[in-house]
Amino acid sequence: MNLEPEQLSHIGNGYSGCWVDADYGSVSQKWLLIHSEQATKREQVTFYKNLDKNITKELKALGQLKKKQFACAVDAEQAMSDFANQCHLLGFAQSTIVKEPIYSGRGRPKKDEKPTGYHYLIDATPYTDLEKVKLAKLKVGMFILATNDTDNTDLTMVALLEHYKSQQKVERGFRFLKSPEFLTSSIFLKKPQRIEALLMIMTLSLLVYASLEHKIRESLTKTEEFFPSMVKNKTTTKPTARWVFLKFEGIDTLEFGGQSFITGVQEHQTRLLKLLGVLYEAVYS
């Protein structure tokens, strides 16, 4: 798919894109082709590093093709045409089909000996096609977002891009379920019903975990308060829930004379509990 820069519309925050109607797997779809300025800066370095490597790869493939023998000129011409269409960087100044005779014996044929047949070889003169290089460079920083919601006329480029970016928050959350601390690898369940029940518990745990993390970060940001960072002597407004749990270790319940006392609560813990509300404070008071 060839795309020119003028076909892209500005989306915002360094993104631009355009809609393309597509049919993939017999399913009607809308594709949003997006160009990212940030990704372009990052990927251009790799593009130029791989340019010579990819050209050399295509030249090597051409060398292998030129060694191949074909039974007829038509087959050779078709093979050359297919190869030229597959080349992303090479062009060909000329290509010819060479007809070579086949003799029955080895070595140099005898004088006036007639060939038993012919085979055909490809001879082509390649060059680096700058137009192809330009088109390849245009793909740097590009990616596709696809949707089968083709009837939704309210779906905008901005909305689809935001949906895509927000899913990363969900995917990061599911790393929590795969972490060794969850011990899922040590649990064996035979019945499908028990597996489904465990999945429900794990998903519910993730919901609580993600909700608490969101509440903590939102409270810290709104009040301009900070929580100790994982980096020594640093603070942050975006701690993970797991880090907060670790920082709440060392709090104990002391029972004396029929009464219970909470000990070991530190200043940063008290500040956070106060931000979260009286329900949280009550647990540690």
UniProtKB/TrEMBL annotation:
NCBIfam families: transpos_IS1634. This is Mobile element protein. It comes from the Bacteria. It comes from Vibrio alginolyticus.
